[in-house]
Amino acid sequence: MQLRTQNIAFRYGKEPWLFKNVNFTVDPGEIVGLVGPSGYGKTTFCRILAGYEVPNKGSVTLNGRPIKSKRKGYHPVQLVFQHPEKAINPRWKMGKVLNEGWQPDQQLLDALGIEEEWLTRFPNELSGGELQRFCVARALGPDTRYLIADEMTTMLDAITQAQIWKAVLKIAEQREMGIIVVSHEVNLIQQLCHRVIEIDHLNT
Ligand SMILES: Nc1ncnc2c1ncn2[C@@H]1O[C@H](COP(=O)(O)OP(=O)(O)OP(=O)(O)O)[C@@H](O)[C@H]1O
């Protein structure tokens, strides 16, 4: 199930083009780094892959079929970004947040260090790192074929970062899930990725 963009171009409204003619592929089980200066469109590109934005031109396909919009059911390309507090309904208790798209099993909760007592709390009663574990669990449903980690662990301490990546990599290997890692942390990218693409080079 290859994830592929063909000749995609995108701009916000009448702003200048952020990118044009982008051809990009990720294979199942592959871990690809996406790096580049701030403001060059990495997050926007990820949002297109995950169906949150529609490109002005070109197509995004999974296994040769056009990818559906985020609004229509569980999306096979899941995006986890830097700010979990913006991705979680503040009025829901964490148990409900966790089971929004699927029901993660105890093994995954343990691997991500999610504690039972957190499930009855509201999001504002947890730390950013604790909340991010829920966002990761939520994104790892059985129908996830690709995970996009957009600065996913940037705000976390080294131990939490390692714990989360260990759990994610194990699942990715078991399921042949592809991962796109966006990060400004060179060490993290070097450690995790099979290949690295610079956003500048997406256009060439
Ligand atoms: N909703 C929006 N409407 C208009 N312009 C936007 C919108 N979202 C982002 N932009 C602009 O598009 C450009 C690319 O933003 P994007 O967040 O994709 O970059 P990035 O490479 O991920 O940056 P960073 O590394 O800082 O996260 C920026 O100039 C940004 O200001």
TrEMBL record:
<protein>
    <submittedName>
        <fullName>ATP-binding cassette domain-containing protein</fullName>
    </submittedName>
</protein>
<dbReference type="Pfam" id="PF00005">
    <property type="entry name" value="ABC_tran"/>
</dbReference>
<dbReference type="GO" id="GO:0016887">
    <property type="term" value="F:ATP hydrolysis activity"/>
</dbReference>
<keyword id="KW-0547">Nucleotide-binding</keyword>
<dbReference type="GO" id="GO:0005524">
    <property type="term" value="F:ATP binding"/>
</dbReference>
<feature type="domain" description="ABC transporter">
    <location>
        <begin position="3"/>
        <end position="202"/>
    </location>
</feature>
<dbReference type="InterPro" id="IPR027417">
    <property type="entry name" value="P-loop_NTPase"/>
</dbReference>
<dbReference type="InterPro" id="IPR017871">
    <property type="entry name" value="ABC_transporter-like_CS"/>
</dbReference>
<dbReference type="InterPro" id="IPR003593">
    <property type="entry name" value="AAA+_ATPase"/>
</dbReference>
<comment type="similarity">
    <text>Belongs to the ABC transporter superfamily.</text>
</comment>
<keyword id="KW-0813">Transport</keyword>
<dbReference type="InterPro" id="IPR003439">
    <property type="entry name" value="ABC_transporter-like_ATP-bd"/>
</dbReference>
<dbReference type="GO" id="GO:0055085">
    <property type="term" value="P:transmembrane transport"/>
</dbReference>
<keyword id="KW-0067">ATP-binding</keyword>
<dbReference type="InterPro" id="IPR050319">
    <property type="entry name" value="ABC_transp_ATP-bind"/>
</dbReference>
